[in-house]
Design brief:
Blueprint (H helix, E strand, L loop, with lengths): L1 H10 L2 E5 L4 H17 L2 E5 L20 H29 L6
Parallel strand pairs: 1-2
């Protein structure tokens, strides 16, 4: 039994939580917080801003700019939003006394 507990503890020392800002991701984070409390695990929150997924129509809001400049502006907006969202979620995890990055 002790060997099993050591194994479980080792494989759950870190919990990776992909997060896209959705309500379902928030629910997954809540579950990760529960598991983290039970196994004394660190939580790692992952969010990816993928510039390949920006549709051409996303640049219409930046008419008057060069296409490359518009793309950079759109990506910066997405990155700022992602940083804000991740910062908020990290504070939620820290408020539960859990290590997070």
């Amino acid at each position: 039994m002790l060997l099993i507990l050591k194994f479980v503890s080792r494989i759950t020392s870190r919990i990776l939580v992909p997060h896209d800002g959705s309500e379902m991701s928030d629910k997954a984070l809540d579950k990760a917080i529960e598991f983290s409390k039970a196994f004394k695990s660190e939580i790692i929150i992952l969010h990816i801003v993928d510039d390949r997924l920006l549709p051409s129509s996303a640049f219409l809001a930046f008419i008057g700019s060069k296409l490359e400049d518009a793309k950079i502006q759109a990506l910066n907006i997405l990155r700022v939003g992602a940083k804000t969202m991740l910062s908020d979620r990290m504070e939620k995890v820290k408020a539960n006394g859990i290590s997070v990055r």
